[in-house]
Amino acid sequence: MRVKDVMSAQIVTASPNDTAQSAARLMLETEVGALPVEVPGIGAIVGIITDRDIVVSVLAKGLSTSTGVAEFMTVSPEVCNENDETAAVATRMRDLAVRRLVVVNDDRRVVGIVSLVDIPAEPAMEGVK
């Protein structure tokens, strides 16, 4: 099975210049918990933010909701290709201790996000000792 078969197709991204509040609103409106951060006009993925990042890195620290995304995003997030095998991606996510990866196509454009919970568990191998 390939990542493109299980990912959440997503074309909504945040800009490094967006505020925490505008990113949170975008997450609410699009019903997502994470946004890739993309340089406008260039399309390069420079980071990722999650709803948890906003709570822990902005609100819990008493920062303003006008804090820029660039100040709390995870820089240079791990990505996978939409044609990668899900089993390999799941292993990689576990090794990296992350729950989500940005999914890109062969042109390195964002096409979605895959979460560990999106990937079906491998069936138990019968007779393996």
From TrEMBL:
Origin: domain of life: Bacteria
Give any Pfam family that matches. Answer: CBS
Keyword Acetylation (UniProt) = no
Report the residue ranges that make up the CBS domain in this protein: 7-65, 73-129
Q: Does the keyword Transcription apply?
A: no
> Which InterPro entries does UniProt cross-reference here?
CBS_dom, CBS_dom_sf, Diverse_CBS-Domain
Q: Which SUPFAM superfamilies match?
A: CBS-domain pair
Give UniProt keywords alphabetically.
CBS domain
Name it.
Answer: CBS domain-containing protein
